[in-house]
Amino acid sequence: MEDLIVPIGVPITILVLLAVAACVVSMTFSGGLKYPKVQIYTLDQKWTHKPLLFSATDIAPMSAERHAESDDVDGGTASGKW
pLDDT tens digits for the chain (82 residues)? Predict the structure, then answer.
């Protein structure tokens, strides 16, 4: 077992170090290629995007034909002092 550490362990260690170095170099030089810099929106610019709805659930809005009850709420409720 001790005889296999040097002939197997050293080449594997060298290959792993080369792979890590290649990944670091790749990440260094390809920073802006995949993800271009996002333009920051300021209030003096016109908003050109459609409205977005962020919801905790993917359920379509319910049309209540009757008075809403506490069991009809999807996603929980919120309460607090205003």
Answer: 778 888 898 999 999 999 999 999 988 887 666 677 778 888 999 888 888 777 766 666 666 565 555 555 555 566 666 6
Are 73 and 57 in contact by the 8 Å Cβ rule? The answer is no
How many CA within 13 A on the CB side of residue 22?
Answer: 6
Greatest distance between any 2 Cα atoms in the chain: 81
| Cα separation values, 11 from 1, 16, 30, Å | 16, 9, 28
Q: Give the single-character DSSP code of 5.
A: I
- B/e letters for 10-31, b = 16+ CB within 10 Å, e = fewer, are eeeeeeeeeeeeeeeeeeeeee
Of 55, 59, 81, the C-alpha closest to 72 is 59
